[in-house]
Amino acid sequence: MFKICSKCGEQKDISLFAKGGKYADGRRNYCKKCHSSYVTSYIKDNPSKRSKQDPKRKFKRHGLTEEQYNKFFNLFNGKCHACQERDATNIDHDHSCCSGAYSCGKCVRGVLCNQCNTALGLLQDSPEKINNLIRYIDL
Q1: What is the CATH number of the domain that holds 78?
Q2: Shared-domain flag, residues 62 and 100
């Protein structure tokens, strides 16, 4: 099944359009690529409108008190617990305990930057995959 993107005008496979319940066919009128380009340029052109998450909401959804969160955050002076270079922005938890974006609080490991958090997620928290990658770059 195909659909024409309202932004670029190209006919594309329906899977290249994000789901949207308010649309007749259940898909948005513009493709994912056009939407991504729009969001990227909007954020670049409107930095003040970029959403900022309430820090209290962030630590509460991980079962932490503000004091516990501050202890994690201040451990490396607000820097990522893994690389210790970039600002710590993501609470990391063991997904084998609590899958998804919420945690019980007992499985919180630290606070990571976006890059380290993404890398850890892509490697599925697997020590074996991480060690294999280390061996690979040491070749």
Answers
A1: 3.40.1800
A2: yes
In the chain, count H helices and then E strands: 5, 4
Task: Find where tokens 């892509």 sit.
Answer: 122
Local structure of 32: helix, strand or coil: helix
Nearest CA-CA partner of 88 in 99, 80, 96, 100: 80
Is 14 in contact with 2 (CB distance < 8 Å)? yes
Note the pLDDT tens digit of each residue in 25-69.
999 999 999 998 988 888 788 777 655 555 556 788 889 998 999
Q: Quote the CA–CA distance of 126 and 129 in Å, as a whole number.
A: 5
Range of the domain at 120: 55-137
Q: How far apart are CA 66 and CA 40, in angstroms?
A: 32
